[in-house]
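Dear colleagues,

As part of the handover before I leave the project, I'm documenting each prediction I ran so the next person doesn't have to rerun anything. This entry is a single chain, and its sequence is reproduced below.
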Amino acid sequence: MKNGDGRTAWPVHHQYSSPLPITSSHHLLAWPITHHRFWRIAAATAADYDVRIRSVIRDSTPLLTEEGWREVPGWWEELSTRNSALKSSHALRACGEERPCGGKPVTSRYTARGPEAEFEPGSRGRVLRNLLEIRSVREMDRRETEALLSATQRLIDETRREQRFTANDICRAHKLWLGEIYAWAGQYRSVNLAKGAFPFAAAEQVPRLMQELEYGPLREFTPCRFVATEEQAHALAVVHAELILAHPFRDGNGRCARLLSVLMALQAGLPVLDFSGVRGQEKARYIAAVRAALDRNYEPMTATFRRIIERTLSSQART
């Protein structure tokens, strides 16, 4: 459905049809190879799989790091002076105030307040408090990467062709990935987050935003069965952008969003998406696309995913 200004309007419904029951005919692994090109069957080499899957989980690809935002000249300064102009944006609209999050102090690279803001003793404020008592950034990066690799494999195995993703599916994916590392894994954050002058949605608004994601973009675009590249790119772009803007978890939002994109792409018959090219100027375009999505302009993000799809298919053709 379209609003008067031509933008998609997603009503929040009170009833929701459950996805199809798990059967072998609906499971990703049951698809004929000519249709799903599932990486474990179709990828030419283990190295090809390794490159693709690690492009999903590595921190240097399109995660919204503080350094990444700053690759866009003037981004911080512009946001600082345009709060009133951005009232229609997700971040400020969710707070219901012109001042970021109602004037409450928001905290920089993920500056935060509350229990989730605590750091592991002895980590010099560099590692979040965790169940494994890890204090080294390098060790934590290694454990998170290994856990995400395992979670990605399991979710690919479990995802069904006709599955309509829900907010609970996203929480479960986050829990499956980080559940053995952080006590808050899979739970909506209870702290406000900001990157410099850019506030994400207030924590108390996250449940509502995730409900809107479920009954809006996820209902409209999953199961992702689109055939044309442009339709695939648009579906991936809208869901990815909205999930990034909601930023539902204390940490790991970018990687979780890329993982969901991979699962949607598999439903559409694409190989595992290759995000490795999202760096340098392409990463700056990605960040600008997130910015555009604040006003539900998804064209820049659609263009980003179009290039990701084309690069993925080109890479597969060379193997």
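The chain is about 50% helix and 0% strand. The chain has one domain: 28-95+137-189+201-318.

All the best with the project,
I.
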